[in-house]
TrEMBL record:
The lineage of its organism: Bacteria, Bacillati, Bacillota, Bacilli, Bacillales. It comes from Niallia nealsonii. This is FAD-dependent oxidoreductase. Belongs to the NADH dehydrogenase family. It holds the Pfam family Pyr_redox_2. Residues 3-287 form the FAD/NAD(P)-binding domain.
Amino acid sequence: MKNLVILGGGYGGMKLLTSIIPHLPYNILITLIDRTPYHFLKTEYYALAAGTVSDNHIRIPFPEHPQVSFIEGEVDKIDLQQNEILLKNKGTILYDDLIIGLGCEDNYHNVAGADTSTHSIQSIEKSRQTHQELNQLLPKSKVAIIGAGLSGVELASELQESRSDLHITLFDRGKNILSSYPPRVSKYVEKWFETHQVKIIRCSKITEIKENTVYNHGEGEHFDCIVWTAGVKPNKVVQNIQVEKDDKGRVILTKYHHLPNNEHVFVVGDCASLNKPQSAQLAEGQAEQIATVLIARWKGEKLPEKMPEIKLKGILGSLGSKHGFGLVANTPLTGRVPRLIKLGVLWKDKTKKKKIFRF
């Protein structure tokens, strides 16, 4: 028997698992390792932190199958020479094939105190903690959100709607928030924040963060809660692997998504170096291709000379419960339509995954 180990039950790991289970040969066992016993919809962590959804709305059971086992644990180290995974306080797991889908963590960009004096929405555990902190704030408390990308914008808008009694300030280093989006989208979101009294600090330069204090261009300002959403980097376990990486610390892969010198080790999701912006869609598209490679190998079939391009449908963001923004087929969208589309996509995703959790 051979053991295929999947590290991480996020979007990539979940998609891979559900794609290969119907094609599993009798001699392949799968071990899924994750810190939690569920697949969580990470794109909705902002809503969990803001208090507008609960855990059970964004969690989905992992698939059940006689050849699949689950270990709830945290990966401490990957030993590529010995083909083994070291788990914290849970021993060692050997593998024949390995899928690394450990996701990302906050990138604090060497800002002093940011790692110890801010809250996060990068994991389910940290999102829960952030919710507890935000939920217990007194009326008129001040909240700082550092970073006005998709996560920061969605968190700020959701929090404003659920706790309109708070004073929310959104810090961004650019002249306009959501600078990677078309100007129409950026201006619409800025107008929404202006209307809903969310303060935007543009061209910010966060030099230091102390307990309840944000230093912007060296000037300190008190806040009752500080949340960091200003960028991510690969999981620390992947950072410690001695393999070729790009300038963002993501692992360089072949066209078949495995290491150049090891065809038995694949990387999926935020830790993989790809030519597209990281997203749940990209992770799932990549996972489908890895599944194609594995299934072909199991059947003894020749791999395709060229893997097809992973096509992304677009990006959608929320502004509270009724408004949104996005970019679909290079067309900018604002208002109620993108919010309704996102709700539909989320409902479809949850329904589909729940239907296939048993085999």
